[in-house]
Amino acid sequence: METRLYFILGDVLANVAVGAVVGIACAAAFSPGWNMIIAMFVGMAIGMVISLPTLLGFVALFGAMEVMLPAMTTGMLTGMVVSMSATMGDLAFGPAAVLGIKSGLGVLVAIYLINILIKRRAPKWTN
Q: Three-class SS string for 16-58?
């Protein structure tokens, strides 16, 4: 993962954008009539499909590998979380977008922490 501020801000912007867009799409697609488990899987698929076109501008500016891994994970997680929330009760677009943004930032923090852990342990595994 890139540690320069420009790329970190790009990751944050990409994850926030993907989280908000996928959250709104899943809030529009699901209602309390859906089964929660089915909605989770369908929401994950919606998140993957919507993430790719949303990322096209970010990939050109910040690099494909640095942006795609966290943002596609954000799309999948946000799709699952928002779709399951929408099955429990009506979910408006605003709260769905906020839930997607929170999911995106959480995924980004988790990926950066895992990357730090892996880099710290890498010399033990490669010697």
A: HHHHHHHHHHHHHHCCCCCCHHHHHHHHHHHHHHHHHHHCHHH
List pLDDT tens digits, range 49-104.
999 999 988 998 988 888 999 999 999 999 999 999 999 999 999 999 999 999 99
- Tracing tokens 């595994």 back to the chain, one arrives at 125
Q: Domain range holding 19?
A: 5-120
SS3 assignment, position 92: coil
Q: Is residue 127 part of a domain?
A: no
Residue 126 lies inside a defined structural domain of this protein: no
Which of left, alpha, beta for 63 (phi over 0: left; psi -120 to 50: alpha)? left
pTM of the model as a whole: 0.89
Q: Are 11 and 62 in contact (CB under 8 A)?
A: yes
With beta carbons less than 8 A apart as the criterion, state whether 69 and 102 touch.
Answer: no
Determine contact, residues 67/13, Cβ cutoff 8 Å: no
Q: In total, how many domains does the chain have?
A: 1
